[in-house]
């Protein structure tokens, strides 16, 4: 495997594993150090997977302190743990000191509490203060994902003063593209780097700052924050406390992580799996089984209701055994139709395309869709049954059952996620497995009710 990264001229640097290992083996660390300075930190992080533990430790120590921290922030938990095992406490402290506060929190959250306490006693005072400040926020809030490294201006500063400050402290800030104007710790405006570069040096900040801006509070849900940043195409979002004082910012990379995490969680819930953020290959067989078996047990026992309904119509099977052959098709069709509707509605709810106020619009639209889909599927099956079974009444039973089943399944598939959202539940819970179980039961009831009426069973 070779990791590839682009240089500034548009060409490519190729990370050659054999060359890197040769430099390490020959102790040509100076050459390796210069080589790594030209590489992208993301590609270096990916390249670490290729190295064994002993080589990994040497390789990482060659990196410059700031570059090493950046590489570390791009490693997954498994690689971080593998690397940490080769470090002493002093080296871990150095990494924490160089990480941005939000990345440091992410790293420390996976470590034992007693080790975290020991490490925090040794890090720089400023770093420890920032980390302790962020640790007080709940995991699902904006406060837990924000960083406290941002650039502040006062409105009396000139553009020249602002640019000088960026040069002075920008290296320690997560972003310099958006800066914040404060007065008595309260956020009164924002200034973009573009505005600074296009303005004369003697222009005061108050003349170019924007006083209308998007912001969030520390207690806001982090998923809502990520959606807000996506909606307004923000690189960074200021986070305020209850007194409207700026305490941090959420950057777009953190927003992407949140959306990825939430999407993964929704997909797992839609597949009736207990949410788990660990990588698939590093999760044990027992953990995989435990995350799946609870919902499978619930769905299995709930499906017994369908079986009990079928058993009540045993006399119908004796009279018309052919009725049994259409049950799987009917149940599958209903489940598939319900899954289609629920998937689209859950997506719409997730991206705020659909709100509870749209309830009746959604129901009416799905009703019209179900009419079209149901008639097409019903006619197709009716024609097939007439041709193959030569039984018009059987064709009517199956066709009408399909039409009614499709209507019910699409109604259930669109209504349950919206109701779940209204009740502050995750709409993903009301996904394919649960809806399929409900629709199966209703489809069987409809089928045998229609058959009983037409055939006088």
From TrEMBL:
> Listed GO cellular component terms?
plasma membrane
Domain CBS per the UniProt entry, residue ranges? 209-265
Q: What Pfam families does this protein map onto? A: CBS, MgtE, MgtE_N
Q: Which UniProt keywords apply?
A: CBS domain, Cell membrane, Magnesium, Membrane, Metal-binding, Transmembrane, Transmembrane helix, Transport
Q: Which PROSITE patterns match?
A: CBS
GO terms (molecular function) for this protein are: magnesium ion transmembrane transporter activity; metal ion binding
What membrane topology was assigned to this protein in its record? Multi-pass membrane protein
Q: Subcellular location, in the record's words?
A: Cell membrane; Membrane
Tell me where on the tree of life, at the top rank, the source sits: Bacteria
Enumerate the InterPro entries for this protein.
Answer: CBS_dom (IPR000644), CBS_dom_sf (IPR046342), Mg_transptr_MgtE_intracell_dom (IPR006668), MgtE_N_sf (IPR038076), MgtE_transporter (IPR006669), SLC41_membr_dom (IPR006667), SLC41_membr_dom_sf (IPR036739)
Segments crossing the lipid bilayer: 293-313, 367-387, 393-419, 431-455
Output the CDD domains linked to this UniProt entry: CBS_pair_Mg_transporter
User: What's the subunit arrangement here?
Assistant: Homodimer.
Q: State the family it belongs to.
A: Belongs to the SLC41A transporter family.
Q: What is this protein for, i.e. what is its function?
A: Acts as a magnesium transporter.
Q: Which PANTHER family match?
A: MAGNESIUM TRANSPORTER MGTE (PTHR43773:SF1)
Q: What is this protein's record name?
A: Magnesium transporter MgtE
Q: Which organism is it from?
A: Solobacterium moorei F0204
**What's the name of its gene?**
mgtE
């Amino acid at each position: 495997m070779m990791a590839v990264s682009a240089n500034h001229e548009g060409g490519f640097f190729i990370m050659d594993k054999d060359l890197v290992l040769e430099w390490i083996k020959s102790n040509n660390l100076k050459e390796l150090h210069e080589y790594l300075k030209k590489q992208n930190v993301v590609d270096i992080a990916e390249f670490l997977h290729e190295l064994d533990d002993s080589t990994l430790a040497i390789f990482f120590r060659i990196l410059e302190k700031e570059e090493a921290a950046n590489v570390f922030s791009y490693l997954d938990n498994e690689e971080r743990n593998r690397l940490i095992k080769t470090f002493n406490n002093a080296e871990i402290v150095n990494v924490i000191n160089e990480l941005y506060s939000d990345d440091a929190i992410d790293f420390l959250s996976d470590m034992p509490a007693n080790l975290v306490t020991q490490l925090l006693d040794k890090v720089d005072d400023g770093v420890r203060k920032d980390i302790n400040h962020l640790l007080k926020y709940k995991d699902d809030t904006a406060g837990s994902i924000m960083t406290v490294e941002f650039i502040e201006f006062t409105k009396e500063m000139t553009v020249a003063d602002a640019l000088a400050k960026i040069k002075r402290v920008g290296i320690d800030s997560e972003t310099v593209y958006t800066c914040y104007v404060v007065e008595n710790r309260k956020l009164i405006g924002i200034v973009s780097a573009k505005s600074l570069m296009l303005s004369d040096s003697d222009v005061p900040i108050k003349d170019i700052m924007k006083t209308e801006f998007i912001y969030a509070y520390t207690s806001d849900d982090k998923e809502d924050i990520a959606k807000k940043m996506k909606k307004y195409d923000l690189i960074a979002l200021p986070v305020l406390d209850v007194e409207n004082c700026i305490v941090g910012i959420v950057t777009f990379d953190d927003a992407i992580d949140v959306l990825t995490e939430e999407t993964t969680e929704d997909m797992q819930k839609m597949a009736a799996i207990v949410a788990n953020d660990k990588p698939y290959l590093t999760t044990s067989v027992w953990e995989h089984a435990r995350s799946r078996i609870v919902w499978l047990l619930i769905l299995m026992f709930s499906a017994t209701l369908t079986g009990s309904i079928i058993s009540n119509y045993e006399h119908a099977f004796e009279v018309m055994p052919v009725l049994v052959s259409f049950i799987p098709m009917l149940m599958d069709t209903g489940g598939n139709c319900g899954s289609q509707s629920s998937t689209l509605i859950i997506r719409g709810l997730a991206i705020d395309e659909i709100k509870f106020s749209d309830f009746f619009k959604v129901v009416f639209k799905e009703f019209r869709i179900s009419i079209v889909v149901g008639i097409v599927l019903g006619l197709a099956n009716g024609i097939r049954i007439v041709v193959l079974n030569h039984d018009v009444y059987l064709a009517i039973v199956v066709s009408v059952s399909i039409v009614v089943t499709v209507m019910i399944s699409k109604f259930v598939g669109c209504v349950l996620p919206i109701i779940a959202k209204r009740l502050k539940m995750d709409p993903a819970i009301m996904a394919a497995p649960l809806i399929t179980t409900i629709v199966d039961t209703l489809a069987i009831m409809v089928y045998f009710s229609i058959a009983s009426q037409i055939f006088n069973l």
